[in-house]
Amino acid sequence: MKRIALLSAIMIVLVGATGVIVPSMAAGEASREITIVARNMAFVIESPDSFGRANPTITVKAGRKITIVLRNDDPGMQHDLVIKGLDVEVEVTSFGETTRLTFTAPREPGTYVYLCSFHPMSMRGVFIVQ
Q1: Are residues 22 and 37 in the same domain?
Q2: pLDDT category, 93, cuts 50, 70, 90?
Q3: Residue 127: beta bridge partners?
């Protein structure tokens, strides 16, 4: 018990002395990583929320740090991921490659379109900031 109290006191002194608090940690918000897989000419998020649906709606919190990981599981195809209106462009990936991009979601809520610039008709979904 004394050890926990001592560590808490040290953290308070350090934060007070440096003035450094990571905003996302202070607000209880960690950064969010979203893995998007390009497969069968569609985007798929392998998570319980999307159940492998093609081009699911992605919802993030305003002002939150987001990392998009794009994995290309589409043999013989190149894909990228662009979020229109947010200047978010994940690099082109070839089959078997993975690339990542970290950005901060806008502080204002909004609805945007994400798509593959090579295949915008079949690989497109909705990106919501709330």
Answers
A1: no
A2: very high
A3: 58, 112
Range of the domain at 42: 31-129
* Domain count for the chain: 2
Where b means 16+ CB within 10 Å and e means fewer, 75-97 reads eebebbbbbeebebebebbeeee
Element (DSSP H or E) covering residue 50:
none
Residue 21 sits in the same domain as residue 73:
no
Judge whether residue 117 has pLDDT over 90: yes
- Kindly report, residue by residue over 15-55, the tens digit of the pLDDT: 343 333 323 334 445 789 999 999 999 999 977 777 779 99
Q: What is the mean pLDDT of the chain?
A: 83
